[in-house]
Predict the 3D structure of the following.
Amino acid sequence: MAHMKERPRRLRTRSLAAIMLLGGTLPAASQEPAAPPAAASGTVYNIELIVFRATTASSAAENWSAEAGERTIAGDESTSDSAQVGRFVAQLPMSAWQLTELENRLRADGNYVPLAHAAWSQTASSWGTRAGFPVKRLGLNVPGLSGTVFLERGQFLHLGLSLTYAMPSPPEGLGAAPDTPFTLNQSRRVRFYERDYYDHPAFGVIALVTPSQGARPPGR
């Protein structure tokens, strides 16, 4: 697998690791199979995201103006010959969310501020298309947040984020002026029912992907 240079992941503190382990009652990741290879193009998946930021910075200041041109998305597949674009199916009601307890733990911890929580169902785009949906379409209505979320299907299923977040008051340790744009570009192979953490020094995202058909109810 070819990887471009990734920025060190510094939002993952001991507190966040504990929250990830304790939040919710999803089964252990080791007990869940990876998403099946070459799933049918019409297969519908449920995606749930929590966007959050830390209240303090745990790293030294960086050159954030240079970050805008960086891309850390990496993959292990080639682009499909017959590209398909994913289809948005529906927004999921809060009663179907499975990361609510995790969001509550983030808020109660005091080191993190949940910014947005949303869930929806969709089909996957072909690998390499980077065809996704804008954050506002998905219900992630955060002032200063823009970009897309994309689900791609090649040999395996991947969930990718291409986000920019400009917060009015960045933590002092980041060494960033108000409304400095921070970018997060990452893609991860999907394992059903496993919480994935997408990290950046300024903000983070926790994601969960499950099959729409036969998906487990919350708390199971």
Observations:
- The beta strands are 45-54, 88-91, 112-122, 125-126, 133-134, 145-153, 157-166, 181-189, 196-198, 203-211.
- Residues 100-109 form the longest helix (10 residues).
